[in-house]
Cell division protein FtsX
Amino acid sequence: MRVQFVLQEIWIGLRRNLTMTISLVITVAIAMALFGTGLLIKAQVDSSKSYWYDKIEVSIFLCNKVSSNTQCGKADATQEQKNQIKQTLDGLSQVAEVTYESKDQAFARFRESFASTPGFTQSARPGDIPDSYRVRLKNPQEYKEVVDAVYGMPGVDQVVNEQEILKKFFRILGGLQWAALLIALIQVFAAVMLVGNTVRLSAFNRRRETGIMRLVGASNTYIQLPFILEGAIAGMIGGLFAAVLLVGSKVFLIDRLQGSLQFASQLSWTSVFGVIVFSICVGVLLCAVASFLTLRRYLRI
């Protein structure tokens, strides 16, 4: 098989259908960028879930003078009530560790955690966050027993299970991930249609050359290979543009989410590189397979 002839045919096909080739490259780039972004968000969410799973706590906020709970009576929890709550928590088999956090400690931790958003921290005042017991569980799934044991006790304002908060948080991120993947699927469908039209048009423009090749005994593989490689090359170029967009997604989307939403673990560039390579391979394979199927389904060459 003459490699020079195949390369020449590929160049002729790409040049004759330049507008459609550019459209195909752009469509593949957008589709693979959205697909890769969805994978990056999924990787970030999975990494954060793994990190937070063993660190989920139940926070038991104590009564203070600004509590909305009528049971508190607009008064701070007494030392006797605090001791009783602590004793109850220490007696639970589900509890691994109990830590007391005063108002000042809670406010200092709040300012440290949200130091990147000064407008948010400046709106808070010392005392806005009440005293609390922070309970780390042996098994995060057994939080209900702890909540039921202390809920309604004298001195308890409210009980917050961080797992419920994190579930809602990760559900939102999961929605973003599926939205990106859904849009990517729509773009992939558009890319497949463009590949089919580009290949059909290219084959129609070269029907005389392919007819002569058929008469002199050229095999189907030899005739079809330039068309398939045209699609694959367009897919690779689109994948390379998608790689640039994915780097931008890492820097301007994932990293900013990590800073704004206080992700404990940062997505590594190794994971990003793996997603980029996978997206390029998917783009090339998608266009090559679409070209092959179009030739078999619609064309007689």
Notes: The longest helix spans residues 162-205. The CA atoms of residues 95 and 137 lie 5 Å apart.
